[in-house]
Specification:
about 450 residues; mainly alpha; 2 domains; Growth Hormone, Chain: A; globular
Length: about 450
């Protein structure tokens, strides 16, 4: 009993800390982007690649690593992910150019894919059905805690020390995770041990996702359309191949015959695609147009994830007692309202208007995320936990990727590679409004995807 309690505690620590690291990095790097751009003379589009390169690498390898965790042990894959993530963070902190920052962000994303593909399945493997919503609520709260303290500490570090120290913070966090893995986490959870790994399918999927997302982020360049078509054809080939192979890296039947799994993943994809780049746009808006320091901008942006951190555990517990689709759909609706409120932002808007918008968005995120994740993970058998957890992370990463891709395409069309200055603020604000309008339309569709999933069978 004590060993089981220790394992639960260790799994919760592992999932919580790893859930914290990614969002903390993302939100703190968003605040630091203008300073990174100043140091290396990077324009708005090239700065976007600091985030995009990471997201590309993280999303491309999630499903293969989730399957590898099912076969060879989730703890083993997770440990290697922590090592790669931590080492690449140190390399970023010592980068001498914008290109090397982007290069090492790719390696950081590779390590993150191992962490995100196995962290949640480890948690789900340890906690029974009736306790999962509460545990997931805590990990989602950690996500939003990372988003909360990221802008605050990222702003302070960037302003008073240097943006490089943000990446140095991953060293102690990585060491804590490794200590917990070695000394507290008992078990390896490889329910599919002995199965063959589908290397061919994994390569088809990886190249297809990479081509699709890389092409999307380079629109409206002419070659980008060919990459997108190539990637979509590759994804179609992947589906056909997986239906015919005996040991697929991803069981397509999970989407064909499990409506809860399929529509919950679609809702997650839409939610992240419609929201992730909002922080990127607001960071540029607050610092370049409103003249706020990194620290001041961080204090404004922190209002959203604070609400998320407070309400996520409550939403998770609620999804243990009632239908997750009801809570998640309400969250998606509130997210839409927050995006519509931000659409009316202009260069003269006050901070007092921005903060309530962020509060509504934060409440919407909190009510959507942990119930939606609970629905996905509780809709599959244990032997698919790794793939299901990887799919959750894949939807998140691809959604973030598309969100940044939409913004980068709009910025490229209206601003080119020019830095954002008071002289071109009209073009920048037009870009913000177009992006928010696109996100709001996507979120409106996401409400119906969330409602269409059907009831969760808890037996």
């Amino acid at each position: 009993m004590n060993e089981n309690r220790t394992t639960k505690r260790a799994a919760l620590i592992v999932a919580t800390v790893s859930s914290f690291i990614g969002p903390f990095m993302g939100s703190s790097v968003n605040i630091a982007l203008p300073s990174i751009g100043t140091d290396f003379s990077m324009g708005a589009v090239l700065l976007g690649w600091v985030n995009t390169a990471y997201l590309l690498a993280a999303s491309t390898f999630l499903i293969p690593f989730g399957r590898l965790g099912d076969i060879y042990g989730r703890k083993r894959i997770y440990m290697w992910g922590v090592l790669v993530f931590t080492c690449s963070s140190i390399l970023i902190a010592n980068s001498g150019s914008g290109n090397t920052v982007i290069l090492f962000r790719i390696f950081q994303g590779f390590g993150a894919s191992m962490i995100f593909a196995t962290g949640m399945p480890i948690l789900i493997s340890v906690f029974p059905v009736g306790e999962r919503g509460k545990a997931l609520g805590i990990t989602v709260a950690a996500v939003y805690l990372g988003l909360s303290v990221g802008p605050f500490f990222g702003g302070i570090i960037t302003q008073h020390l240097n943006w490089r120290f943000i990446f140095w913070l991953n060293l102690p966090l990585g060491l804590i995770l490794l200590a917990v893995i070695f000394f507290m986490l008992k078990g390896d959870w490889a329910e599919a041990r002995g199965a063959n790994f589908d290397l061919t399918g994994s390569m088809i999927l990886a190249f297809s996702l990479l081509a699709t997302m890389y092409g999307f982020t380079n629109l409206p360049e002419f070659y980008a359309f060919f990459l997108i078509v190539f990637g979509l054809l590759g994804i179609t080939s992947f589906v056909i191949f997986e239906l015919r192979t005996s040991n697929p890296v991803m069981d397509i039947n999970l989407f064909r015959f499990n409506t809860v799994f399929a529509f919950s993943n679609l809702a997650a994809l839409i939610n992240y695609a419609a929201t992730f780049a909002v922080g990127f746009l607001l960071s540029l808006y607050l610092q370049r147009l409103k003249g706020l320091s990194p620290q001041e901008a961080g204090l404004v942006l922190v209002s959203q994830p604070i609400i998320q951190a407070i309400f996520s555990p409550l939403a998770g517990r609620l999804s243990d007692k009632t239908e997750p689709r009801t809570v998640a759909s309400l969250g998606m609706t509130l997210t839409l309202i927050g995006l519509v409120m931000l659409f009316f932002l202009d260069s003269d808007s006050s901070i007092k208007y921005i903060i309530p918008c962020l509060v509504v968005l934060g409440l919407g995120f909190a009510l959507f995320s942990s119930p939606n994740t609970n629905a996905i993970m509780s809709s599959v058998e244990r032997r698919f936990f790794g793939v299901a957890g990887a799919m959750v992370s894949t939807m998140r990463q691809i959604g973030m990727m598309f969100s940044m891709g939409i913004v980068m395409m709009i910025l490229a069309l209206l601003l080119g590679d020019s830095p954002i200055t008071p002289e071109n603020q009209e073009q920048f604000m037009a870009s913000v409004k177009i992006a928010l309008a696109v996100f709001a339309v996507m979120c409106f569709g996401g409400i119906f995807a969330s409602l269409a999933r059907g009831k969760l069978n808890r037996s």
